[in-house]
UniProtKB/TrEMBL annotation, chain A:
Family annotation (CDD domains): ABC_NikE_OppD_transporters
GO molecular function, one term: ATP binding
Protein name per the record: Peptide/nickel transport system ATP-binding protein/oligopeptide transport system ATP-binding protein
Domain of life: Bacteria
Alphabetic keyword roster: ATP-binding, Nucleotide-binding, Transport
Automatic annotation (TrEMBL), chain B:
Keyword Nucleotide-binding: yes
Name of the protein in question: Peptide/nickel transport system ATP-binding protein
Pfam families: ABC_tran (PF00005), oligo_HPY (PF08352)
Sequence similarity: Belongs to the ABC transporter superfamily.
Matching NCBIfam families: oligo_HPY
Keyword terms: ATP-binding, Cell membrane, Membrane, Nucleotide-binding, Transport
Membrane topology: Peripheral membrane protein
A GO MF term: ATP binding
Signal peptide (from-to): none
Length: 326, 324
C-alpha cells in the first residue's frame, strides 16, 4: 500500500538569537530528522512528553512552520517545496484539530460563520449547497442546527471541540492532524469526544494523525504508534506490538510510569532519573543515554537509527538491535 | 486513630454578577493522622475551593460557613494573625502550577527559608542549613547550588520538588496537594508521586490529595471522596471504591477512562455536562445525566447515606441505608 503521507528526514530548528545584534548563536532542535509514513485509512498516534517535538512535527507537516530541512510527500507532491499559494490550496486536503477549544475558535464569529469560512476559502459549493453541508456536518458531530447561530462562548469545552472537529471535517480532507484534541477536557467529556472520533473514522474512512501525551488515549484510538523523544522517533510499531512488547528503554519507562486505576495491582516501575535534556544542546550519541538504565559506551558516542526488529516494529536503540536487550 | 481535620457542613459561596453562587454545598469529611485522603472530581466540582476554604485563602467575595476543626479548634474562628501561624506551619499546601506559585524574583533558597524563619524562629544560618537539607530530602542534585538559583532555571519537575520542600519546611501535620502532578509529564509524575509517598512514610504527615486522575488516586490514597457539583457523592476506602463503586457518577467516571489494558471498542460516556452553580437541578444534582434516574431523583435531593463503611448520596441505596 502506498502511504498517503510520507515524511523523510524532517527537521525543524529554531534559531537562538542573543546579544545586541541578535546573532544566531545556536539552534533548538525541536524536530531532528524524522521519518514517518501514514497509510490511507489508518490512525497514527504520536506520543511523547512535553518538549519532544510532537506538536512541532504536526505543525511543520502542515507548513504552519517552515521546515528547516526534509521532505513531506503527500499525494505525489512534496509539501515542503510548494509555494505559499499552492500550499494554501493544498490545505483543503490537510486539516488540523487544535488542543485548546477556547483559543482556536474566533469568539466574534457564529458557528455558522466559522464553518462557512472554510468552505468559502476553498470555494466549495454554492451558497445553498454550503448551507446544506454545514447543517449536515453539525449533526454528524453531535450538535444541532439551532446551535449554528450561536457564538463559541455559548458552548462548553466538549461542544467547542466538536465544533473544531466539524470545521476540520467540513472540507472533506484526506488527512486530519489532531494535536492533543482531548487533553483540555474532563474525563467524562473526553470519552464523548473520543467515541465521536472513532465513529467519524469509520464513517468517513478518515486518515488521522493523532498527537497526544496520554498513552491510554492513544492506545484506545490509534492503529500504529510512534514514540518520540527529544525531536526523534525512538520506536514505531502497531498498537498491539508496542503495548505488549515495548522495546526501546524509553518506551518501557513511559508505559510503566502511567498510573493504573487498580489499587491492589503492584507493578514493576522503571523510574527514570533526571529530566528531559534541552533540545538546544542534546546529549551526544543516543540522546536518551544519560537517563537510560541500560546505556553502554557505544550509546554515548554513536547515534542509533530506526531499524526493523521484526513484524514492522522499528526501534532506534543499539542494545535492542544487537540483541543485548531483550 | 486520631483525627486531625474535621470538616462539617462546609458551605462556600461567592458573590458574583449573577447573584450569590454556592460552589461548595454542605461538605463533610475528616482526615486521620498519617492518612492520605483523595478528593476526586471534574472541573467545577468544588474540590479546589474546598482546599482553599480550609486554608482560608479565598478571594474577598468568598464566604465560608460551617466548621473546619483542625486539632479540635475551629479555624474559622481564628483571627487572621492566628491563621497565619497555622498556614505553612501546621497545614502546608502544594499547588498545581509550580511555575506560577513560586516567586520568580527570589532565589529558591530564600523562598524555602521564608516560612522556616517565620514559624520555627531559626536564625539565617540555621535556616539555610535546613533549606539545603530539605532540598536534598526531595532528591535535588547539587542542593547547595540550587539554593542560590531562581525558579526559571529549574524544570517543571524540579520546581515541584521545591514546592514539596517548602511544604515540608515546618513539619506540617497536614499537606494539601492540589493537582500536584497534573502539569507534569508521566515519567516526572512517577518521580514526584514516589517522593510524596517517601515524605509521608518518613514524616507521618497526613496528605489531602486533590486530583481528577483516578490512576493517581489508586496509587496514593487510603480513603477517597468523590465530589460532584459541590457535594460529596461517595466516600469509602480506596480498595472498595475501585472494586465496588456505588454512585452512578463514580461508576460512569471509571468507565469513561481508557486504560492501558482496555480492549473496549467504545468508551462509556456520561451524557451532558456538569450543571452550572446558579442552575442546580432541584433534586439530585446528577439526575439529569444519570442513566438510572428515577422519579424521586428529579424531585428530592438525596442525603449522604451511611452504608457499612461506605457513604453514598443516591436514592438507589435508600432502602439499604435505612436498614443499617
Amino acid at each position: 500500500m502506498t502511504p498517503l503521507l510520507e515524511v523523510k528526514g524532517l527537521q525543524q530548528y529554531f534559531p537562538i538569537k542573543s546579544g545586541f545584534l541578535k546573532k544566531t548563536t545556536g539552534y533548538v532542535k525541536a524536530v531532528d530528522g524524522i521519518d514517518l509514513k501514514v497509510y490511507p485509512g489508518e490512525t497514527l498516534g504520536i506520543v511523547g512528553e512535553s518538549g519532544c517535538g510532537k506538536s512541532t512535527t504536526g505543525r511543520t507537516i502542515l507548513r504552519l512552520l517552515e521546515p528547516t530541512a526534509g521532505e513531506v510527500w503527500f499525494d505525489g507532491k512534496d509539501l515542503a517545496k510548494l509555494s505559499k499559494e499552492e500550499m494554501r490550496r493544498m490545505r483543503k486536503d490537510l486539516q488540523m484539530i487544535f488542543q485548546d477549544p477556547y483559543a482556536s475558535l474566533n469568539p466574534r464569529m457564529t458557528i455558522k460563520q466559522i464553518l462557512m469560512e472554510s468552505l468559502m476559502v476553498h470555494k466549495i459549493g454554492t451558497t445553498a449547497e454550503r448551507e446544506r453541508i454545514i447543517e449536515e456536518i453539525i449533526e454528524v458531530v453531535g450538535l444541532r442546527k439551532e446551535h449554528l447561530n450561536r457564538h463559541p462562548h455559548d458552548f462548553s469545552g466538549g461542544q467547542r471541540q466538536r465544533i473544531g472537529i466539524a470545521r476540520a471535517l467540513v472540507v472533506k480532507p484526506k488527512l486530519i492532524i489532531a494535536d492533543e484534541p482531548v487533553s483540555a477536557l474532563d474525563v467524562s467529556i473526553q470519552s464523548q469526544v473520543l467515541n465521536l472520533l472513532k465513529d467519524l473514522k469509520k464513517e468517513f474512512n478518515l486518515t488521522l494523525m493523532f498527537i497526544s501525551h496520554d498513552l491510554s488515549v492513544v492506545k484506545h484510538l490509534c492503529d500504529r504508534i510512534a514514540v518520540m523523544y527529544l525531536g526523534r522517533v525512538v520506536e514505531i510499531a502497531d498498537k498491539r506490538t508496542l503495548f505488549e512488547n515495548p522495546s526501546h528503554p524509553y518506551t518501557r519507562a513511559l508505559l510503566s510510569a502511567v498510573p493504573v486505576a487498580k489499587p491492589r495491582q503492584k507493578r514493576e516501575r522503571i523510574l527514570l532519573q533526571g529530566d528531559l535534556p534541552s533540545p538546544a544542546n542534546p546529549p551526544s550519541g543516543c540522546t536518551f543515554h544519560p537517563r537510560c538504565p541500560y546505556a553502554t559506551e557505544i550509546c554515548k558516542t554513536k547515534a542509533p537509527s530506526l531499524s526493523d526488529i521484526g513484524a514492522g516494529q522499528l526501534v532506534s536503540c543499539h542494545l535492542v538491535q544487537s540483541g543485548q536487550l531483550k | 486513630m486520631t483525627t486531625i481535620l474535621e470538616v462539617e457542613q462546609l458551605k462556600t459561596r461567592f458573590r458574583t454578577d449573577n447573584g450569590v453562587v454556592s460552589v461548595v454545598d454542605g461538605v463533610d469529611f475528616s482526615i486521620h493522622a498519617g492518612e492520605t485522603l483523595g478528593i476526586v472530581g471534574e472541573s467545577g466540582c468544588g474540590k479546589s475551593v474546598t482546599s482553599l476554604s480550609i486554608m482560608r485563602l479565598l478571594p474577598p467575595n468568598g464566604k465560608i460557613e460551617g466548621e473546619i476543626r483542625f486539632n479540635g479548634k475551629n479555624i474559622l474562628d481564628l483571627t487572621e494573625k492566628e491563621m497565619q501561624s497555622v498556614r505553612g506551619n501546621e497545614i502546608a499546601m502544594i499547588f498545581q502550577e509550580p511555575m506560577t506559585s513560586l516567586n520568580p524574583l527570589h532565589t529558591v533558597g530564600r523562598q524555602i527559608e521564608e516560612a522556616i524563619i517565620l514559624h520555627m524562629k531559626l536564625d539565617k544560618a540555621e535556616a539555610k542549613k535546613r533549606a539545603i537539607s530539605l532540598l536534598k530530602a526531595v532528591g535535588m542534585p547539587r542542593a547547595e547550588e540550587i539554593y542560590e538559583e531562581f525558579p526559571h532555571q529549574l524544570s517543571g519537575g524540579m520546581r515541584q520538588r521545591v514546592m514539596i520542600a517548602m511544604a515540608m519546611g515546618c513539619n506540617p501535620k497536614l499537606i494539601i496537594a492540589d493537582e500536584p502532578t497534573t502539569a507534569l509529564d508521566v515519567t516526572i509524575q512517577a518521580q514526584i508521586l514516589d517522593l510524596m509517598r517517601e515524605v509521608k512514610e518518613k514524616t507521618g504527615t497526613s496528605i489531602m490529595l486533590i486530583t481528577h486522575d483516578l490512576g493517581v488516586v489508586a496509587e496514593m490514597c487510603d480513603r477517597v471522596i468523590v465530589m460532584y457539583a459541590g457535594q460529596v457523592v461517595e466516600e469509602t476506602d480506596v480498595d472498595t471504591l475501585f472494586e465496588n463503586p456505588k454512585h452512578p457518577y463514580t461508576i460512569g467516571l471509571m468507565n469513561s477512562i481508557p486504560e492501558l489494558d482496555d480492549e473496549r471498542e467504545y468508551l462509556d460516556t456520561i451524557p451532558g455536562t456538569v450543571p452550572l452553580p446558579h442552575q442546580m437541578p432541584k433534586g439530585c444534582r446528577f439526575a439529569p445525566r444519570c442513566s438510572q434516574a428515577m422519579a424521586i431523583c428529579h424531585e428530592k435531593p438525596p442525603e449522604l447515606l451511611q452504608l457499612n463503611g461506605h457513604k453514598c448520596r443516591c436514592w438507589l441505596y435508600a432502602e439499604e441505608g435505612e436498614q443499617q
